[in-house]
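Good day; I would like, with your permission, to put a structural problem before you. What I wish to show you is a protein chain and, alongside it, a tokenised description of its three-dimensional fold. Here, with my thanks, is the record as I have it:
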Amino acid sequence: MTSDVDESGTTSESKDPELLDTVTVTDTISVHPTPMLSLANTYNADELRDFDRRCRDILGHSNYTWFVELKFDGMALRLRYESDKLVLAATRGDGRKGDIITKNALTVNDIPAEIRNNSGNIVEIRGEAYMETNAFAAYNQSRIDQGLQPFANPRNATAGSLKMLDSSEVAKRPIRFFAYDLILNEADQALSSKIDTHEAKMGYLESIGQRVCQKRWHVTSIDEVLSIISELETSRKTLPFETDGVVVKINEDVYRTELGFTAKAPRWAIAYKFEAEQAETIVNEISLQVGRLGTITPVAELEPVLLAGTTVKRASLHNEDEILRKDIRVGD
């Protein structure tokens, strides 16, 4: 089974109807020289061990090591630097081509306009734009105060924001960014010859001024990977951003090349998905929210509950038909 995620395990931008209140870029498209492909998903230890076995069988040995990263729940981006300056930022799109959003990306503080210590190499970077949970909650509340429809989650808010035409408006939104990959076959030969593992790529990204997530692990066995996952099942709730799993990758480029790709995904990486978080609460009241275009949306006013790192007090009920279908009532 595969999911619509790129090599970092990142979901592509949503087409949720709530994004329609933004004006989006549709006529400036960039073709990705290296496609931003999907990853296969796995949901338990047996499936992850089977993935390890498949890699071992194809390679004929177990000399490889594993790199484990958080699977960020945001919007995948491609960044290109030439002569140390950012010349292109684009969304993942359909994996082969995406919208150009360079001006908007330059409003994100975590995305440097220039990189350092690079000696003018051409650098292609993959990364994740996202919103931290507390910042997202505050941003959503500001939308509600203005009579606007709140976003369902930080991922949708990030995607809708970065595809707006007005960069000054994008700059007001609390978007952050992690770099998580360096695409060496698009880089200068001088750079490619120096970096042959994912661990080295992450170190290089840090050295040129890119923000990378400090929660990452280089281990030698799938048992160690499973131990990391077990610990994260609990500790992820304390992270300032949403994550719904980890990405498990072979660290060494030489073995990645040998393993290659299927039609949809690399054979050397997989996304391990956590169980979805749930919480119980009480519907204290059902209120009506009027949008700027006069649209009326029923909203459940909830007993505050902590979920995915943020306190949830309200939830959209979408429309009257949905309320009737689910038989939602005050006191439920």
